[in-house]
Amino acid sequence: MIGRVVDVSSSDGTGTRGPYAKGVQRRQEILDRTLDVVAERGIDGTSLRAIGEAIGVSHAALTHYFESREALLVEVLRARDQVVQQEFDDDGGVADMVRAAEANVRVPGLVTLYTRMLAMSVEPGNEVAQAFFRERFAEGRKSMAADLRARLDASGATTDLDLEQVAALVIAASDGLQVQWLLDRDLDIPATIRLLERLLPATP
Amino acid sequence: MIGRVVDVSSSDGTGTRGPYAKGVQRRQEILDRTLDVVAERGIDGTSLRAIGEAIGVSHAALTHYFESREALLVEVLRARDQVVQQEFDDDGGVADMVRAAEANVRVPGLVTLYTRMLAMSVEPGNEVAQAFFRERFAEGRKSMAADLRARLDASGATTDLDLEQVAALVIAASDGLQVQWLLDRDLDIPATIRLLERLLPATP
DNA sequence: GTCTATACAGGGATAGAC
DNA sequence: GTCTATCCCTGTATAGAC
Predict the structure, then answer these.
(1) In angstroms, rounded to a whole number, what is the distance separating the alpha carbons of residues B159 and B152?
(2) How many other CB atoms sit within 10 Å of the CB of residue B163?
(3) Is B47 helix (H, G, I), strand (E, B) or coil?
(4) A202: region left, alpha or beta (phi > 0 left; psi from -120 to 50 alpha)
(5) Under a CB-based contact definition with an 8 Å cutoff, are residues B179 and B192 in contact?
(6) pLDDT tens across A116-141, in order?
(7) Best A169, A171, A197 residue to mutate vs chain B (most B CBs within 10 Å)
(8) CB contact under 8 A, A180 and B137
(9) What pTM was computed for the model?
(10) CB-CB contact of B176 with A175 (8 Å)
(11) What does the alpha-carbon distance between residue A68 and residue A62 come to, in Å, rounded to a whole number?
(12) With an 8 Å Cβ cutoff, are A169 and B173 in contact?
């Protein structure tokens, strides 16, 4: 196994010894194992039956913890976001984008999951993923714009650029570069994002 | 129907009256209708059976013209690329990126198909899509870098930037913005790409 | 060459037993 | 909480009609 997506024993509100201990741990086990199966067999190979097999339960048992396959896969991404934000003290700024890129090249399975789920979310019938990414982008653009504003003010510089638009651009570049990298591992994502950073005002 | 993806009667080598006329037209009909079904029911709803139903043939008939569902969907994208390149005299430069963005906001179904197929291509088991996008990105980066070089030389300016990296960045931004736009139609893709254009050297 | 009919393995979702 | 059984849908492959 790759490792626990998020440590349940320290962050879970119900504790690991309460009446729901087994259920909570089982839920965590499903999230962890799902990421393993994705890395081994790809998203399309990550059927509920395949995950269940990896754990030793039937596929129907999984639906007791997650409303649907889609919801389960989204939860894997959500758990990852949480651990990144906690461990790296991520505030959503431009610098964090580079660091995230550096970390992500070491977990291609996760980047693949992110890419596939994001594409899945753009179509009706995938409302769970859609809600997740809508909120994720809205928050990401907001915090990124705030970071740009703060850096600009600190340097005493001014700009006529729409910082929300710049934020959307940086996030878009990051997502787009990940896809190109998945298809051609020679591409250097962190270097290219740093290049974009250099082009931005107040980041000489 | 949305319209013919590419006019077969003028570009097809075998002609529309030859011995294979019916097959050629049928193949074209499948490509056209597939785009309609995608627009109406989403990619996941675009099963071979759904396409066949829209045409009035069995789903098995489709496999006579296309090796697989994946190959069929890729051919829709390839046909669209061809018509864009012919009609707009697209040379793959930065300016074409803005124009393509302006055209694409009018065909969200196509943007959706592109996004979903691109994400599909990053995983093993989808070699047809993978080959298509690998080549598409390689060519796109090359022509875009050449365009940047030409503009730079024409303006007499110089830069220490890696132009292939800049090209990858512009393409990545375009792809990433399309996804954000699909989730939030308020986002202005052409304006944001123009913003990036402004940041680039030799494009004041 | 074009197409229908059919069979197969596998998918997500769900109902109800235990 | 977990199971089995079942439903309907999918892409693919093949046999054979015309």
Answers:
(1) 8
(2) 18
(3) coil
(4) left
(5) no
(6) 999 999 999 999 999 999 999 999 99
(7) A169
(8) yes
(9) 0.94
(10) yes
(11) 9
(12) yes
